[in-house]
Amino acid sequence: MSKNNTEADVAFIQALAELLNSNELTELSVKREYGEDDSLEVRVVKQANIVTTQVAAPMMAAAPAAMPAVGGAPAAAPAAVEDPAQHPGAVTSPMVGTVYIAPEPGASPFVTVGATVTEGQTLLIIEAMKTMNHIPAPRAGTVKRVLVSDGTAVEYGAPLMIIE
């Protein structure tokens, strides 16, 4: 990232975060080339209503942690952000599609936080190509966190919920 472009880059990252929210996207990845050895790579990911940014620039003088976050506050160190996909009890999406947490609109959800589930029990539905795919619990346990909202798009490998 060029020293002269710092304010413009922060505004660009903020615009990406707004674009992510306004279009109900879960992830954006952009690379801006300023010159031969000067570029900005930004990946903005939305998970469970959290927007994180990752900035990588090969010829950058300042460390990425010195960049302001989307909200204007100093960015947290990457290790400080918990990644639900890395949790040992994470249930991840086996496909790309739209999540439905209930069997039909207005019905009660398949599972809620605190519910005890058995292996094979339907946790939610992912619609892909007009096909409703029931996602079963991979193991018995208690639902600790639901990481997706009804009607949101998910990608392959995205964390859906935590079962312990």
TrEMBL record:
The keyword Transmembrane helix does not apply. It comes from the Bacteria. InterPro entries: AcCoA_biotinCC (IPR001249), Biotin_BS (IPR001882), Biotin_Carboxyl_Carrier/Decarb (IPR050709), Biotin_lipoyl (IPR000089), Single_hybrid_motif (IPR011053). Residues 78-164 form the Lipoyl-binding domain. PROSITE patterns: BIOTIN, BIOTINYL_LIPOYL. One of its GO terms (molecular function) is acetyl-CoA carboxylase activity. GO terms for biological process: fatty acid biosynthetic process. Pathway: Lipid metabolism; fatty acid biosynthesis. GO terms for cellular component: acetyl-CoA carboxylase complex. Keywords: Biotin, Fatty acid biosynthesis, Fatty acid metabolism, Lipid biosynthesis, Lipid metabolism. This protein is a component of the acetyl coenzyme A carboxylase complex; first, biotin carboxylase catalyzes the carboxylation of the carrier protein and then the transcarboxylase transfers the carboxyl group to form malonyl-CoA. This is Biotin carboxyl carrier protein of acetyl-CoA carboxylase.
